[in-house]
Design goal:
single chain; alpha/beta; nine-stranded mixed β-sheet; elongated
């Protein structure tokens, strides 16, 4: 079975559902969908090694929030989504007595717009670790000890991101790491309209197929919650989808020719391989992103940063964080 390259568990699940005749029953996987007025929530839990093998994803929880409103400057709907994302994060945080110590890691390259989500979020979260250390009387147990870091990318620093994060982790010893990164999607409609939250860690650079050493509990020594938004789709995938639509139209509106019938009969893996072979010599491994990405990053960044603030700081409410966000 052809499994398209994607960072989203929901897209892998969609392919697998088709392979079992649209059933929600995937061996070793529990999938639940909730639909609300302004967004949809999908919870996928990979239960065991069988599910891990089938999904190609580690055992754990994958929660996906989908809404076209994420692309728009709509504070009221964003408020709903912020509260939902915050609840999802709370559900994945480790159980802890006293003030939680959290390290927020913004993965990505500040010099590449589609990859600035992580660093943008680190600028927006409420950092409090220094207050707990130098003016402890100024805060109480309703405020966690939060620190943030945007380590950059290996192409700029010459250092593996995991090495930087591991070094910081060994020094400050957080109870949990929350890592934010841009992802790659299989379906172009999910670009900028999907937030994935998981407790299985993340591979920096995964969105463009440039995976580095993974940030997960085994490597970091503490739980790692990953939050990602697909901001790019590779050109071959986009062309493949366009070709499928074009072939369907041609077959409906004109006489069936051998050429179109032959293309229609190609398997998805064969078709994708053919497209890659044709376009790679001319445009290389091209990734595509929307033209308004710089504006949308601010909406997405605010939603994720505010959700983190509410989730980890028990004394902060949605009204507190949203007062001056827009």
């Amino acid at each position: 079975m052809f499994m398209p390259r994607t960072d989203l568990a929901i897209e892998v699940g969609a392919v697998l559902k088709q392979s079992v005749e649209n059933s929600y029953d995937i061996e070793g996987v529990d999938l639940q969908v909730e639909k609300f007025e302004n967004y949809k929530k999908t919870h996928i839990e990979v239960l065991n090694e069988e599910g891990q093998k089938t999904m190609g994803k580690p055992i754990g929880h994958y929660i996906t929030i989908e809404s076209e409103h994420l692309k728009e400057n709509d504070p009221e709907i964003h408020k709903e989504i912020i509260e939902e994302v915050a609840d999802c994060i709370k559900g994945l945080l480790p159980k802890h007595t006293g003030a939680l110590k959290v390290l927020v890691i913004g993965l990505g390259n500040r010099q590449a717009t589609p990859d600035t989500l992580g660093p943008y979020v680190t600028d927006k979260v409420l950092v409090t670790r220094h207050l707990a250390e130098f003016v402890p009387d100024a805060i109480d147990e309703t405020v966690c000890h939060l620190s943030s870091l945007a380590p950059g990318v290996m192409g700029l620093t010459g250092i593996e991101t995991s090495e930087i994060v591991r070094g910081v982790t060994e020094h400050i010893k957080p109870d949990c790491i929350i890592a934010i990164d841009a992802l790659g999607a299989r379906n172009a409609t999910r670009i900028n309209s999907t937030i994935q939250i998981s407790n299985t860690g993340i591979s920096p650079g995964a969105g463009i197929g440039n995976k580095r050493k993974k940030l997960d509990q085994e490597a970091m020594g503490c739980p790692v919650i990953a939050i990602g938004v697909p901001t790019v789709v590779d050109a071959a995938t986009l062309i493949n989808d366009t070709m499928n639509t074009l072939i369907d139209i041609m077959l409906k509106e004109s006489e069936h020719t051998e050429f179109y019938s032959m293309l229609k009969g190609l398997g998805e893996q064969e078709k994708y391989a053919l497209i890659k072979e044709v376009i790679t010599p001319t445009i290389g491994n091209l990734f595509v992103t929307p033209k308004d990405m710089d504006e949308v990053i601010t909406y997405l960044g605010n939603v994720i940063a505010n959700a983190i603030n509410i989730a980890v700081h028990p004394g902060i409410t949605i009204d507190d964080v949203n007062k001056y966000s827009y």
